[in-house]
Amino acid sequence: MIDFSIDKEVLKKAVERAKENNIIIPTFEQMRDPTLIPDKIKQKLKNIGLWDVNSYNLFRITWKNEPIAKGGLYGNVNYFELPSELTGVKARIVALVGKWFPTGSHKVGSTFGCLVPRLVTGQFDPTTQKAVWPSTGNYCRGGAYDAQLLGCESIAILPEGMSRERFEWLSKVAGEVIGTPGSESNVKEIFDKCNELKSTHNNVVIFNQFDEMGNRLWHYVVTGPAMEEVLQKIMGEKDRLAGTVLTSGSSGTLGSGEYLKSIYPNSKLAVSEALQCPTLLYNGFGAHRIEGIGDKHVPWIHNVKNTDMVMAIDDNDAMNLIRLFNEPEGKEYLRKQGVPSSVVDNLSLLGISSIANVLSAIKFAKYYELTDKDVVMTVFTDSMELYRSRLKELQEQKGRYSEQQAAIDFNRHLMGVKTDFIQELSYYDKKRIHNLKYYTWIEQQGKELDELNEQWYNDEEYWGNAFEIADKIDQLIIEFNKKTGLLD
Fold first, then answer.
1. Which residues form the Tryptophan synthase beta chain-like PALP domain (predicted)?
2. Cα 390 from chain centroid?
3. Ordered alpha helix ranges (H), 436-465
4. Are 62 and 34 in contact (CB under 8 A)?
5. How distant is the alpha carbon of residue 433 from its chain centre?
6. pLDDT of residue 1
7. What is the pLDDT of residue 239?
8. Are 433 and 280 in contact (CB under 8 A)?
9. At the N or C end, where does the chain have fewer CB atoms within 10 A?
């Protein structure tokens, strides 16, 4: 879990580095409620771009950013509701929008939840140590960005087969970028590189999203309440939250679904993965193209006992839909099917894993025969802004997109979504998935068997008290800011 031991000497160095770089750190509470952010900082943000490498952008790690590229402040939670003309189901599918974070993805929040607790306790020395961010894409981008804003050096590690946009952006922000063999499913190769760095360097700290509890914590106490705000806004008296449906990357975002289950106890938490690599569903393996999710293992921070369903999404569906949603011929076809132009014009808000989340929500709605009184919540992790090269590759491989192909994609890959490759989890189904952690985390990564059993047999205590932990971190952040004197 999160360690609160204080190293006073290192903490002094971190405070001095913050003074030198004009770094003020936001609290979790301010991320949930930006009205608490000091006016001094809001005035600064009026002249800063959303993706600018500027320490004040730490205060834009929130779901409530004004959706503009520069100078925006705050408003309501950014969300998007997909109409039945697009989804083919009666249930209301609603998603939080990740594009309007710095870096264009909510992973910048996950990395904050991992790095900042160690910074404000003196467990990470920004003057001598390097923050290592192993990832399949957005997490290492968020980590390198946060590290830069917080005055730290960073190393980004990601598979060499990930989108060109990721590497181009990282080359400008990260201190070092390492490409490992393979692509989306090759997570062990990332872990191996981390172990190599630890054995050859004495100044690296690994922030592994798959086992860092700060990742799950941030989503539980920030993303979950943001979802709750949206639900309170859109649901009528007779409506109900049927469930939260999310792809399993590092499993951090699943914390938001756990939060909603604590507020709406009759709702479910469903987790999806690529059919081409069905680890949770079939103990399977393989490679796939849904960038943004990692496979062949069960993340250490996945609270499997609180998961109700697993399912698999064919990556062919997701890849065909990025053309339908973004090519001019595809957009025009959607309008002819009655999809409102206001929706069609904003489909670029969905990146590849976001489309997989929507397909998962559709499967969920069809499986449970949900009605127009049911709401399904999900997340648009990132947008097509990070995948234009993939769209270009498809154009080169398959040629010009046509209305005929749009009709095929719409009916086969969207309206044709089936309820196959789904499993509702019994107690022992959940335990089967949980036990898979043993091979990755105990045998390969050296974690303790006692803690693995603690996750299962003492789950309420192990996974609980998220807000209490976040409040404790907030107090440390407030004390840190006081020591810098930058808010005076």
1. 102-330
2. 20
3. 437, 449-457, 459-463
4. yes
5. 21
6. 76
7. 98
8. yes
9. C
Could you read off the pLDDT of 295-308 as tens digits, one per residue? 789 999 999 999 99
The length of the chain in residues reads 488
> Can you state the angle between helices 328-336 and 315-326, rounded to 10 degrees?
90
> Crossing angle for the helix pair 107-119 and 466-484, nearest 10 degrees?
60
Report residue 47 CA to chain centroid gap: 27
**Contact between 140 and 133 (Cβ < 8 Å):** yes
Q: What would you report as the CA-atom Rg of the chain, rounded to the nearest whole angstrom?
A: 21
Q: Measuring CA to CA, how many Å separate 50 from each of 66, 69, 102, 446? A: 10, 5, 5, 39
For residues 143 and 175, the answer to whether their CB atoms sit within 8 Å is no
Q: What is the pLDDT of residues 265-274, one digit of tens each?
A: 999 999 999 9
Token pair for 118: 């160690």
Q: Which two tokens stand for residue 286?
A: 């393989």
Whether the pLDDT of residue 293 is over 80: the answer is no
Judge contact between 240 and 213, C-beta under 8 A. no
Residue carrying the six token digits 């009916």: 411
**What residues have CB less than 8 Å from 321, skipping those under 6 apart?**
355, 359, 409, 413, 414
Count CB neighbours of 40 within 10 A.
Answer: 12
- pLDDT at 162 > cutoff 70: yes
Beginning with the edge strand found earlier in the chain, give each strand of the sheet holding 176-180 in spatial order.
Answer: 176-180, 153-159, 130-134, 204-206
What's 392-416 look like in SS3? HHHHHHHCCCCHHHHHHHHHHHHCC
* Strand pairing report for 92-97 and 130-134: unpaired
Q: How many whole angstroms separate alpha carbon 342 and alpha carbon 347?
A: 9
pLDDT at 292 over 80: no
Strands of the 92-97 sheet, one edge to the other? 79-82, 92-97, 374-380, 240-247, 268-274, 309-313, 422-424
| Single pTM value for the model | 0.96
Q: Which helix (H) or strand (E) holds 138?
A: helix 138-149
The residue ranges of every structural domain in the chain are 79-99+215-426
Among 154, 456, 157, which Cα is nearest to 298's? 456
Position 291 confidence tier, pLDDT thresholds 50, 70, 90: confident
How far is the C-alpha of 112 from the C-alpha of 58, rounded, in Å?
9
Supply the pLDDT for residue 185. 77
Determine the Cα–Cα distance for residues 117 and 133; give it in Å rounded to an integer. Answer: 16
User: What does the alpha-carbon distance between residue 470 and residue 438 come to, in Å, rounded to a whole number?
Assistant: 28
Give dist(CA 412, CA 420) in Å, integer.
Answer: 14
